[in-house]
Structures are given as structure tokens and as C-alpha cells.
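User: Okay, second chain of the day. Same drill as before: sequence in, C-alpha cells out.
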Amino acid sequence: MAGHGAMALPDISSVPFKWRLKARWEGYDDPVEYYMLQQELDAYRNWLRKMLVYAARPVEEELPDLDLDDEIGNWPPERLKLYAKLFDRGIMKPGGHDYAMELAKPLALDETMSCLEIGARIGGAARLLADKFGVWVTALEQDGELALIGMDRSVTAGVQKKVPVQKYDPQNPEIRQKYFNVVYSVGEMFLIEKKDTFLLQIAESLREQGQLLLTDYVMTNKSSEQSDLYKNWLAHEEIMPHPWTAERYKDVLQKLKFDIRISKDETALHLSHIKSAWAGLAQEMKGGEIDPDFNTFLEQELEMWMRRVKLLETGELAYYRFYATHD
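Assistant: Same drill. C-alpha cells below.
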């Protein structure tokens, strides 16, 4: 990067330990090079925040609260690396790349289409679809830190205009009307409280023959807010869940003039994705291949996913896929 030729490289002993550790997680053989890179990243963060506004496609919005200094803390490199081990780098969701590609099959994506992703995390799925199909994806994420990390990765990949990752407020999403060919969300809508209003905005954002693809956690006839398992789950998710039933989804979508093509219980598949991911990690741990710094986040993440697994296994939650088209 610019500036390396004019700056004297520090001795490795002067590089703080935390930066040497981060360099190792990021795959850098030379901690000094990594440290210098981070100093330059600090210098262009203001530029990056401005780019978040200019690069936004198709939504033009100010993002003043995407400030790394304010947001950093919940998603340090070690936690991101743990998710990369579990669910494919950048995807951060059960099933990883393979499931994302499977979900995309009925959408017939191509380079003429614009998509909107709800709950994009750091935008891994959006960048995958853009790379494979040439599609344009506006990736929305309500966690400001993840959104900024995701936009940084889009910039690094050179796709900041094709895959902008932006923070949004689910209570006031301000989604551009009649613009998108596809809106999709993978396992994130249960975190949105006012889904009636949100789905109305999604319907209004679609062009003619627009497509909607959702997978989500839903309540069943076994769900009970008096259940200890259910109450424990509600209390310990990072964002308060507000799940619907599958029937309510179908009812609301039909009222919004969606033609529902797929309404499928994928609980068994979702469980297999979660369990195989953790089983693979456990196998690596037995071989001594997992860095001990994962331990900082390992227990809390395992407990979060196991709470979901227990509810899915008891039938108090289900995992559904919906695919629909709009007039």
C-alpha cells in the first residue's frame, strides 16, 4: 500500500502482542507487515465511512453510526474466525456456501438483477452470489459492527458498489420502492418485531414478478412462552426474538399478493447443518488444531446454538423455507 516505501519498518519486538496475535489469525506470516497495514487502515477509516454513502447501491442513505471506534467490541477477529470455522468464511450461517447456492436455484439470478438481503451479517452470501451470478446485492445488517466489517471486506474485494453492506434499522428500514428483483433473508427475520410492516415494505420494494425467499425460525403448536426451554432461548439471544408461526407467514404473504410457491419445513436439514458444523470443530479440537484463543468465545457460542437445537428437537421451534413471487 502507499506509504510503505517512505516509512521505516518497526522491529517485531515493538509490535504489540495483540497485533501479532491478530496477524496470525488473519494468515499473515509477517506481523510487522500486518501491523503497518493496520496503521494505514486507521488512516482511511474516515474515507471508508464516506464511501459507505457514495457506494450505496441502490439505497442512498447516510450511515453516521457505522463508526468502528464506537461499534468495535462484540466481534473481534477471534470470534469471526470461530464462525469462519463453523459455517464457511464470511457466511456465518448454518449450511455455508453450499446451502446458499441451493437456496439460490429457483431465483435464476443473472447480472441484470438487483437483490436485497435482510440480515446479511458481514455479507458473505451476498458476495458469493455476486461472484457466481454477477447479480447486484444490497446487503442490510442491523448489527453496526458486522455491517462495517462487511463493507470493509467488500471494499477489499473490490465489490463495494456491487455488494454494499449497510447498517439498517428494522423499525425504520427505508427500503427503496419498486427497485429489486429479489429480496431474500436466511434465518434472520425472527429477530424483527414488526414483521407485518416490514413485509409490506418488502412487497413495495419489488419490481413486477419480483421474488421473495425467506428461511426462518417459526413457532409451532408446541411452542409455549411458559416453557423453560423457550423462556431461556428468548432471554439469551443477542437480539430479542419475535418469531411467527408458518401459518401467519403464509397468511400475511397472501394478503400482500404473494404467490407462495414453496412452504417447506426444513428443520431436519437445519439441524444437520448445525450439528455437522460443531462436530467438525470438535474433531479439529481433538487433533489439537484449534487455537486456544477460540476458548474465549467457544462456550457462549456453543450454548447459543445448543439452545436452538434443543427447541428444534423438541418441536417448540421449526425452521421453514418460503419462496414466493409478487405480481
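Residues 153 and 243 are 31 Å apart (CA to CA).

User: Thanks, on to the next one.
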